[in-house]
Amino acid sequence: MVVKITITSLLILALLSFQTAAQATLSVVDGIREEALRDNQSNSGRPLPLAGHWNLGQTQNGFSPSYQMKMIDQGHYLLPSFLMPNVNTNPEDPRWISYYEASIKRAAQLKLPIALIGTQWEAMLSVDDEYVNLPPDQNPNVVTADGKVRREVSPFGPVGAWYEAGMKWASSPMMKRLQEWYRDPPLLLFISNNEHVKLQWMKVEDDQRYIRLFGRGRDDDFKRKIVGDGWIARYRALQDGIRDGLVNSRWKERVMFIGYDAFGPAHFGRWAGWMEYALYSKGRVNPWPLAWDGGSPSFYVYNWAAMTDYTVFSPQVETMNWVFMQAEALRLNPRFWFEMSVWDGHEPAMENDKRKTYAQAGQRFTPERYGGMAQFGMWLLRPRTVREFRGWQDTLDQAEPYFLPIVEAVDRVHRNPALREFWRKGSLVPNRAGAHPYQTIIPAEYQNVDRWFLLDTSLDPKRPWELGTPLPVFALALSLGDPPHRRWLIYAHSPLGARQGVQVTIPGYRSVTINVAVGGSFYLVDEKNGRAQAAP
What we know:
The protein has 536 residues and is of the alpha/beta class. It has 17 helices and 18 strands. The strands form four sheets. Strands 1, 2, 3, 6, 7, 8, 9, 10 and 11 form a nine-stranded parallel β-sheet that branches. It has a five-stranded antiparallel β-sheet with strand order 12-13-14-17-18, covered by helices on one side. Strands 4-5 form a two-stranded antiparallel sheet.
């Protein structure tokens, strides 16, 4: 029998295919919007994660807005991010029109939430001479006893300068153009790189305004508290200036301000001097939930440190400290938007590039291995966004293979009903048979909080562990239900190679046997039968 396919039939098939693809895109877009707008503690449970990036495609073939919009059209759960316009960005420059217009109008058509990512907004206070040359009582920077100005902001300078700086950022012509192109966004994240030089609390007596207010010889607790309070007032003034400088009322109402590394510290308790690099004061481990609407801390394998993805000194272990800090942040600020920035320490031009370090040890750091590590952080912390870091000049050819496992990990949560249920409502299982290895100078109020979630396995090295002790398998569990009807989701990954027949102990229950992949493995355990089954 000969089947005749007419042109009309082909057109109908093409139209149906197009409609199916369009419906799939709209479903993903609806999911992105719904999860971005979901409250942290909604009746439905935790918001599902979204993927994001710090590289914004300023150079050719990067993670540009157009690339991100194509990824969404292909069915991926991304929160589209744009470079925040500089104060002097020319809205008539064809380069910037090409960069912004089509993508932001497409986001407007789909009513997507968007992020605008900028440099450290307060930097102009230390860079622009109009601020640096102000008299001491008007200067936002550190002013020493002899009247010299250091180009670093001070928590004791005038607050008004911070508000003024915010107004300048929001009042730029290009920012006004973006508000015209996208008049009614459901949510805006303004994200600061937040790395400008600040006066450290140990050096507060360097600033003559501090001496005038409080004198010399105050204790460390007082200094940390007063510095934290100073930053809260000034960063909120900066943000108020940005908000008030916006011309679109919808933007004013729906903007949230997120600071890179405005969270932590992950190094809590690691060594005797950890508080020198923290702003702990009684009642708050840090002031940032009061100074920002959210934070994007570093789940990084730093290339300048001895940390790796396969030892005790790893982001997987360090950031277990963040679990109790998340709970505290939500008590201080119920709307706090917790992101997770991810990086593998790859800087190919540097001698300390982490992939070179692994190669010297006879290892390969593959995208699969990177994905396994990132997923551990995801399931430990369940962030709103998983935002990958790459240098601003990195290209898709170089970096996309390492971004895709993160995108896939985010998509997996949305598409797998079992994972979705545990993400929303599962409880992270503490392992109280052990303790976090960071135990130096723990404040009394945090001595009994759960900070250890790594499950015991049959491959664990003999204790005691040191920072450089290799860990063959990293495993954690989330639970649902009460005895005798509990269910668990186990996530495990094995950075240095797949492991078969690994026994993992679920605290308060029993051991189960699983196989662990480099890129991560999920298992479901039901208390009724005690078996571990690979998640579908």
